[in-house]
Design goal:
The protein contains ten helices and five strands. Helix 4 packs antiparallel against helix 9, helix 5 crosses helix 6 and helix 5 runs parallel beside helix 9. The N and C termini lie far apart (about 45 Å).
């Protein structure tokens, strides 16, 4: 485990990578913390300590919200069975980009860069190299052993595989999710709920899995007129939710 320090980053990625079934986890979160009612015994752990570690990981890595609107948006979505299981996992992915800073940074600076550069595979060593870079260049951050850094690199890609965004063993193939229009509408609401930036400079826009021109085209589709207004001055696009 990582040593405790006063840095911005924690080792929650390691715990999240150990959660066995993300589909069941979403139901557990919705039943236990959200708006649905069901069995909270979906997960079986060998010890009470294992259960508490899992609960702690959920609360510290996932259930962080900017405001009540963000919280409602997330819980309504994961309870909405009109979203497929894979769509709900993408919603969880977007939530993690807000709620866990290290997950967000790895995703933005390593994984999404690989996506937008057209690469088809990614390896754990790329993640561990990035973590070493943070450790070496940012004072007080990632004061971890080399073993913990290597575990974190591996666990990050395990999370992405469980989210349906990577596949394979050592060398993971990058999986591009199908962003349906319902999911796209959720994403635009999400990024404007967690950030005040209404333009394409929103820091969360990188997680859209859409190149800028495709994003603009989707924003302007006729079926999205009920959800927002899009205005353009020069190259500057502004999205105003209705």
């Amino acid at each position: 485990m990582a040593k405790k320090n006063n840095g911005k980053y924690d080792s929650g990625v390691n715990i999240m990578g150990s959660v066995p079934n993300y589909n069941v986890m979403l139901d557990y979160i919705s039943d236990t913390y959200g708006i649905t009612e069901g069995s909270t015994g979906a997960f079986e752990f060998r010890t009470e300590k294992s259960l508490q570690r899992f609960v702690s990981a959920i609360e510290s890595c996932i259930l962080k919200f900017k405001n009540d609107a963000h919280k409602k948006l997330f819980f309504d979505a994961i309870a909405d069975k009109t979203f497929s299981v894979q769509e709900r996992l993408v919603i969880l992915f977007w939530q993690l980009t807000y709620s866990n800073l290290l997950f967000s940074r790895i995703t933005a600076e390593v994984f999404m860069k690989a996506v937008y550069s057209g690469r088809v595979t990614i390896m754990a060593e790329e993640i561990t190299s990035f973590l070493r870079f943070i450790k070496e260049t940012e004072e007080g951050e990632l004061d971890w052993s080399e073993d913990t850094i290597k575990i974190s690199g591996s666990k990050y890609l395990t999370i992405m595989k469980k989210l349906g965004l990577a596949d394979g063993a050592i060398k993971k193939s990058i999986v591009h999710p199908v962003i349906t229009n319902n999911l796209f509408v959720y994403f635009i609401r999400f990024i404007q709920t967690v950030s005040d930036d209404k333009t394409l400079h929103n820091p969360f826009i990188i997680f859209s899995f859409n190149e800028e021109q495709n994003l603009i085209s989707r924003l302007k589709r006729i079926e999205n007129i009920p959800y927002w207004d899009v205005s353009q001055i020069g190259n500057e696009i502004t999205i105003d939710l209705k």
